[in-house]
Fold this protein.
Amino acid sequence: MRYTGIFILIMMLGSTVSAQVEEIELDSLAEKLIIMEGDSTFRESIALEEVVVFSPLEFKSYEDKLRYYILRRKTHKVYPYAKLASDRLVELNSRLGELQSKRKRRRYTREVQKFIEQEFSEELKKLTRTEGQILVKLIYRQTGITAFDLVKELRNGWRAFWYNTTASLFDISLKEEYHPDQVHEDYLIEDILQRAFAARHLERQEAKVDYDFSTLTNKWTSVKKSEN
């Protein structure tokens, strides 16, 4: 069971709880006492959050180290946009499920599309080509849908094709997916995200495309050893 209350451990030796438990030492009682949302209860153990231990970062060369930290800066920059896109998609699908009329559904979709364009457009214009491509990958990570299909869903096939053609002029594919188990750069992005989540530099959001990070790390560590 997951608790949202604050865990309080009492460490005052030699005191008593009440007249009925006068002889009970508080350090013994504290092992079982948990305060949850203003109330108290007894448990044998306290559930702790999972702690991920990361291996120290190692690089073959200064160039590799530089590329990693540049990738980290870009990933930190664009991840919030991918998270926002996922939030908006969840809201859209939830609302559409409540609308019975096709006319109302089309109208609401257009309103959301305009809102997303206004919300994103000015900021996205500031992104570099590589930042834009990382964003496309992270949108797929968070939504399970390519940016191309998102545009197609919100607008139509022709506009999605046009958007993808325009993006291709800048060497960006809106059809790009995210595969950290196959693409080393995608694994580095996942490594960056997991470290940022653990350090609370980025807000974790459940991903639609999820991988076991330990398995990924073991795989790429093995690949690195075989190359040496």
